[in-house]
Design brief:
89% helix
Length: 89
């Protein structure tokens, strides 16, 4: 009985730590990916183009940055789930 509560406690700890690390990584990715995108397109100022109403730049920029953040979230979610499953076994 004590082992069961111990396993539940460890899984809760792993999930909380994984969640905080995951949130930090997603925030870091959402800060770094636009800067990387700006470096990859040095002749285009995405902010000015979006402000001017250029939908092509806005859609491309949004899809690339959004895709990177969603991809990072999927990887972090898998890591948190792996931590929970390893604590339960």
């Amino acid at each position: 009985m004590i082992e069961t509560f111990s396993n539940i406690g460890w899984s809760m700890l792993f999930s909380l730590v994984g969640a905080f690390v995951g949130m930090a990584l997603v925030l870091l990715a959402s800060a770094l990916v636009p800067k990387i995108m700006d470096r990859m397109t040095p002749n285009i100022d995405e902010g000015k183009e979006i402000a001017r109403g250029n939908l092509a730049v806005a859609e491309y920029y949004g899809r690339v940055v959004g895709g990177c953040i969603i991809g990072m979230s999927i990887v972090i979610g898998a890591a948190v789930l792996g931590g929970i499953l390893s604590a339960l076994h």
